[in-house]
Each structure stands twice: as C-alpha cells, then as structure tokens.
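Q: Give me the 3D complex with A1CAB.
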Amino acid sequence: MASVASIGFIGGGNMAEAIIKGLVRGTFPAGGILVAELEERRRTLLEERYGIRTTAELDEVVRTCEVVVLAVKPQAVAEVLPGVAAHFSGEQLLVSILAGVSTAALEAHFDGSPRVVRVMPNTPALVGAAATGLCPGQFCRHEDLLLVQRLFEAIGTALVVSEKEMDAVTGLSGSGPAYVYTIIEALADGGVLEGLPRPTALALAVQTVLGAAKLVQESGEHPAALRDKVCSPGGTTIAGVKTLEERGLRAALMGAVSSASRRSRELGGK
Ligand SMILES: NC(=O)C1=CN([C@@H]2O[C@H](COP(=O)(O)OP(=O)(O)OC[C@H]3O[C@@H](n4cnc5c(N)ncnc54)[C@H](OP(=O)(O)O)[C@@H]3O)[C@@H](O)[C@H]2O)C=CC1
Ligand SMILES: O=C(O)[C@@H]1CCC=N1
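A: Here is the predicted complex, encoded as structure tokens.
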C-alpha cells in the first residue's frame, strides 16, 4: 500500500474532525474521505465544513475504504469492533487513535492477520501542527507504517515509537494541548490581575507561548539555556521563576503527564 485514495473514519467526533481538517487543508482530496457517524447533526456539519462524505452505516466505511481510522471512544471498542471485523479484508489497514487500547487487543477481534497501526495524534492537527506518536501492530508491514506516518506528517510532526511508549505519548502530547491552554489562560489572568485589558493579555500570552516554542524548535537550544537568557541578574524574570519553583509548576506538569499516562493504561485494561 504505497499511497492511499480513500480514508474512512468510524466516529466523527473532535479528534476525527481535527485529522480531517488537517488532511483537507493539506493535499488529501475531500472526496476520498468517508465518515461513519451516528449523529445526523454531526454528519451534516462535517459534510458542509469539509466537503467530505458521511454515512450512518459503519459497514459502508469498512466495505469501501483502504484505510479505516477507528475514532470512537475507547469505551465503545467492544461495541464497534465486531461490526468492523465482519467486513474487514486483508487488503485494508486499520488505524486506531484510541487512547490506551493496544494493537494486540484490537487484533484479537479479527480473524487472520489484521494490519493495525496505533496512533496518538493531538487536536492542533486542526491547524496542521499536530504532534503524533505511532507504532505498528504485529502484522503491520513496514510500508503500512510509513504510509500512516506520511499521512500524519501531512498534519504536523509524526514520530514512530514502541508500543510500550504509547501511554506516555498519550499523557504528554495527546493530552498536552489541554495543559498548554490552561497555562495560556493562567498567564492571561496574571496580566489582567496586573491591569491589562483581557484581549491584550490573551494576545500577549498566546504569542509568548507560540514564540517560546518556536525558539526551542528552531534554535535547537535546551529550554534551560533559553530560560537563562531571559533571566537578567537581579531582574524581573528570576523573581517570577522563583515563584514558579516555590509553587511547584514543574512537579505539577510532570504529575499531569503521569496521571494522564496512568489513565491511558487504565483505559487499555492495564
Ligand atoms: N480529543 C483528543 O484530543 C484526542 C482523542 N483521541 C482519541 O480519539 C477518540 C475519539 O475521541 P474524541 O474525538 O475526543 O471523542 P468524541 O466523543 O468527540 O468522538 C467520538 C465520536 O464517535 C461517535 N460514535 C460512537 N459510537 C459510534 C458508532 N458506533 N459509529 C459511529 N460513530 C460512533 C460518537 O458519537 P456520540 O457522541 O453520539 O457517542 C462521537 O461523535 C478516542 O478514542 C480518544 O482516545 C486521541 C488523541 C487526541
Ligand atoms: O482525553 C482523552 O482521553 C483523549 C486522549 C488524548 C487526548 N484526549
């Protein structure tokens, strides 16, 4: 499977939409995307926004698409997978974005040797800036993995990891946008507390996070070295950094990644 003309989604929720928008704003033809979604309002919205096709019938996606992306909640897997497995052929590739659910658990629902790739993307896919981790199932061919990596590289960064690393990827980059939104909101609140109008505070907070991330990415410098360059001796920044250390921001973020990774393991029954 060197390239792919049709991608089907089982579930048309938030993450499916983020991937779809990322693909369509890239080079993937909207006509090649089919989404099975139970809710009619959601189907209409996806069709109108992205020019893709939708259906209420899960089996239509499985019968017609080369790549089938499983995008329902992990809790729905036992309800949905028998219907997928019933129509699945050896020529197709199953891509799962489900948090926690292992490739072995997915494969167990199928006869034969289903080709499965487990992927953990994130919602900045909406703007072509996703951070994605992916790993192969036991029957997946190398070319399948490369194909899926290319698809997700079209909507951001996509790194191949081992399956045992996927729960950590989920806790860090899968859930991570929510941590960063909280940080942006809190920075803006701090600006408002100090007298800035809300729109000014939010615009400055967003650009500060964006600019700092871009500088880490483009300079290749360690974040600690970049932080040192902001901290003038006896100046303002080191006073702020001291407060962050006293109040435990670093431990709080490390703890958030661990809590989310643990929840990913729980969702996968581990
Ligand atoms: N949101 C995120 O940032 C990320 C999510 N994920 C993973 O993506 C998956 C989806 O998450 P998310 O998009 O947040 O959740 P959503 O609830 O937004 O999306 C799931 C969608 O699937 C629909 N659905 C449920 N059962 C069926 C069915 N039998 N046939 C067709 N559609 C069905 C749901 O409809 P209804 O609501 O009516 O049940 C809903 O629209 C999860 O497994 C999650 O772990 C992975 C990375 C990031
Ligand atoms: O919250 C969740 O379970 C999903 C998986 C990663 C991000 N959102």
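A quick observation: The chain is about 55% helix and 15% strand.
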